[in-house]
Automatic annotation (TrEMBL):
A Pfam match: HD
Protein name: HD domain-containing protein
Protein family membership: Belongs to the SAMHD1 family.
Gene3D superfamilies (UniProt xref): Hypothetical protein af1432
SUPFAM superfamilies: HD-domain/PDEase-like
Any one GO molecular-function label of the UniProt entry: dGTPase activity
Gene Ontology CC annotation, any one: nucleus
Coiled-coil intervals, chain numbering: none
InterPro entries noted in UniProt: dGTPase-like, HD/PDEase_dom, HD_domain
Domain of life: Eukaryota
Residue intervals of the HD domain: 16-122
Gene Ontology BP annotations: dGTP catabolic process
Species the sequence originates in: Octopus vulgaris (Common octopus)
């Protein structure tokens, strides 16, 4: 992406060292993800005893510092101001740097289109076996810098719609599938209980401990059968393993969740195209062929998105799922079925 933009006529040229920094930031921007990715990030912020919100991007910067400390032969090849530049790229904050477009490549806070999104949408679609319909290579080829921000050729609007639809489909079929939501809730409850004994949520503050903090934490909880401090957490994980809950869809408000909380679970899904209830296409800057000015379709009087695409009536769908714990011992049921 950065090399393509650097070949265009419009943007100010960036040096090979700057390009290297962008590439390093691309490699390191997700170092801060804990086990179970964004789900665990939510667990941390729900259980931390501080008002400061924990973000995996900040942890990525801390992990980068840790790696450079552990590998001084690498650190001596990178200038301090370059390290600071890499961190800003990871976080997506330009600071006093006038080259705003550089900060839209990896973590684009302006309109949420970046190579990180293309990467996970392509990878997850592939490994989930559902494929993808958008072509990020075409998007890169059709990108250029106008007024210091990355803009895209007007005819890529269909590709972007396909991209946002791919995001919606992944959330519906995988990320916010009802069974996934239930397992996430039980996992969070298990970690909250086990944290009293294993200090799980403190591991994100020590990069050395964080390095060895993997999903093996599940085995650590499950294998200690004689440890009563982990009994509640083990039971939560076993509810996941044995699928102790049966589900049904509901539109109720979940006010009765307080009654027998171990028997009933309510999980909420909010699935959208990436901009809440809004249309994310309206935020993207486009340009016409042979035109050095950018525009957004929301403000364009020439062509309306509704005339170009078959758009949904709404861009957000909210669903609540209700789960009831089975009264029968799941182990016995499994053996009977077997």
């Amino acid at each position: 992406m950065i090399r393509h933009l650097n070949q265009q006529k419009a943007p100010p040229k960036v040096s090979e060292r700057d390009i290297l920094c962008v590439e390093i930031a691309g490699l390191c921007h997700d170092l801060g993800h804990a086990p179970f990715s964004h789900v665990f990030e939510g667990f941390i912020n729900e259980n931390r005893r501080t008002d400061n919100k924990w973000k995996h991007e900040d942890a990525s910067c801390q992990m980068l510092d840790h790696l450079l400390k552990e590998n001084p032969h690498v650190k001596e090849k990178i200038e301090p101001d370059e390290i600071a530049f890499i961190k800003r790229l990871i976080i997506g904050e330009s600071g006093s740097d006038e080259r705003q477009f550089l900060y839209q490549i990896i973590n684009n806070a302006s309109y949420n289109i970046d190579v990180d999104k293309w990467d996970y949408l392509a990878r997850d679609s592939h490994f989930l076996g559902i494929g993808k319909s958008f072509d990020h290579e075409r998007m890169i080829k059709m990108s250029r810098v106008i007024d210091n921000e990355i803009c895209y050729r007007d005819k890529t609007v269909d590709d972007f719609y396909d991209m946002f639809y791919s995001r919606y489909r992944l959330h519906k079929t995988a990320y916010q599938h009802k069974t996934v939501l239930l397992f996430n809730k039980l996992l969070g409850e298990a970690f909250k209980s086990a944290d009293k004994h294993l200090k799980i949520f403190e591991k994100v503050d020590d990069m050395k401990k964080f390095t060895y903090f993997t999903d093996s934490i599940l085995e650590e909880i499950l294998k200690n059968e004689d440890n009563d401090n982990l009994k509640e957490a083990r039971n939560k994980l076993k509810d996941i393993i044995y699928r102790s809950y049966e589900h049904k869809r509901t539109v109720g408000d979940g006010n009765d969740q307080g009654k027998e909380p171990d028997k009933k679970k309510f999980c909420d899904a909010s699935i959208n195209y990436g901009a809440g209830e809004g249309n994310p296409l309206e935020k993207i800057p486009f340009y016409h062929k042979n035109d050095n000015k950018s525009f957004k379709y929301i403000s364009s009087e020439e062509v309306k998105l509704e005339e170009m695409l078959l758009l949904p009536k709404k861009f957000c769908m909210n669903t609540r799922y209700y789960f009831q714990k089975e009264s029968e011992n799941p182990r016995k049921k499994m053996k009977a079925n077997h």
